[in-house]
UniProtKB/TrEMBL annotation:
Residues passing through the membrane, by range: 20-41, 47-69, 76-95, 107-130, 142-162, 190-210, 222-243, 255-275, 287-306, 312-332
Domain of life of the source: Eukaryota
Signal peptide per UniProt: none
Gene Ontology CC terms: membrane
Name of this chain's protein: WAT1-related protein
Membrane-protein topology: Multi-pass membrane protein
Compartments in which it is found: Membrane
PANTHER family given in the database record: WAT1-RELATED PROTEIN
Primary location recorded for the protein, binned into one broad class: membrane
Every EamA domain range: 24-160, 192-331
């Protein structure tokens, strides 16, 4: 009996750790995408065309799994679900990715990731507006969530106004003694890039909220991911044809970093990420799923200083701390809210637990009877 209880606890612990492990893994995937994509954009890749190729790769990579694994459980397609999938394709592949890549082109990977840390705050605001989150300003936990949201947004907005001195890192000094950095070109427009990134983050937050609602009606994550990527590919083709109509050569792609960026972003951060994100949202909700973005900023800052010789500014560090502080104020409020809810639900658990224990005891007695009688 003790062994069974121990195994049960271990199993529950592993199950509870899965969403955390999934979201941490995704941040490493997103970080790699930021670095590889920045290199591709620096080499002249059109971000409109990159979005098309990215989601074409995503569709082709995940469609076989959806067709085979969910052929018996795929819900019936209705017009309402189709409309939601159409909007998801517009929010994620088209609006989010195009504006994010445009913002990345005008700024840097670390700056882009730092601005993306507004995602949990924006997701929380939208979840409140759509009544997926509750707010009662008389309680501390809700005050923490609201204040954290305001601090996060303020920190992100201030990043566009002040850079501060460069933070010299030991390895970046050794690797680039002259201090010349390719990604810190003079033609960067940080304000324009910031606006693009804010629009992208707003679209991303909207995708989180709508995806959570869509999964309630269409509970087939692989199929939903495939349909969103496919719909996004079609929409992105239209956008790219319009924006690159005077430059047909923008569609050319070879065995280079452009192909690597499209394949990596499509397979890892669209196909796999959309699927894993859907699983986590279904289990933990959109606010939890968006809460791990600060980890991506740290990963990109370290890798970017190695690979791209990216400069890190003191202003960015300070506001990064401000953003993360506000973010985890939101998360603390979310954690306390979930804990209170579970405690209320657990009010009736002792009776059930007693019944389970009695049932286990009866089974043990029945098993021991033959041995005793013998």
């Amino acid at each position: 009996m003790a062994c069974q209880l121990t195994q049960g606890r271990c199993s529950r612990t592993l199950q509870s750790c899965k969403p955390y492990a999934a979201m941490v893994s995704l941040q490493f995937g997103y970080a790699g995408m930021n670095i590889i994509t920045k290199v591709s954009l620096n080499h002249g890749m059109s971000h409109y065309v990159l979005v098309v190729y990215r989601h074409a790769f995503a569709t082709l990579s995940i469609a076989p799994f959806a067709l085979f694994l969910e052929r018996k459980v795929r819900p019936t397609m209705t017009f309402s679900i189709f409309l939601q999938i159409f909007v998801l394709g517009l929010l994620g592949p088209v609006i989010d990715q195009n504006f994010y890549y445009a913002g990345l082109k005008f700024t840097s990977p670390t700056f882009s990731c730092a601005m993306s840390n507004m995602l949990p705050a924006m997701t929380f605001v939208m979840a409140v507006l759509f009544r997926m989150e509750k707010v009662n300003m008389k309680k501390l936990i809700y005050q923490a969530k609201v204040v954290g949201t305001l601090v996060t947004v303020a920190g992100a907005m201030l990043m566009t106004l002040y850079k501060g001195p460069i933070v010299e890192l030991v390895w970046s000094k050794k690797m680039h003694p002259q201090g010349t950095v390719a990604v810190e070109a003079d033609d960067k427009d940080w304000v324009k890039g910031s606006i693009f990134l804010i629009i992208a983050t707003l679209a991303w937050a909207s995708l989180f909220v709508l995806q959570a609602e869509t999964l309630k009606k269409y509970a087939a994550q692989l199929s939903l991911t495939t349909l969103v990527c496919f719909m996004g590919t079609l929409q992105a083709i239209v956008v790219a044809l319009v924006m690159e109509r005077k430059k047909p050569s923008a569609w050319n792609i070879g065995l280079d970093t452009n192909l690597l960026a499209a394949a990596y972003a499509g397979i890892v951060t669209s196909g796999i990420a959309y699927y894993m994100q859907g699983l986590v949202i279904e289990k933990k909700g959109p606010v939890f799923a968006s809460a791990f973005s600060p980890l991506m900023m740290i990963i990109v800052a370290v890798i970017g200083s190695f690979v791209l010789a990216e400069k890190i500014y003191m202003g960015g560090v300070l506001r990064g701390v401000l953003i993360v502080g506000g973010l985890y104020s939101v998360l603390w409020g979310k954690y306390r809210e979930n804990k209170e809810r579970k405690e209320k639900e657990a009010m009736s658990l002792p009776v059930a637990v007693k019944d389970e224990v009695l049932e286990v005891d009866k089974m043990e007695i029945e098993k021991e009877k033959p041995a005793t009688e013998a």
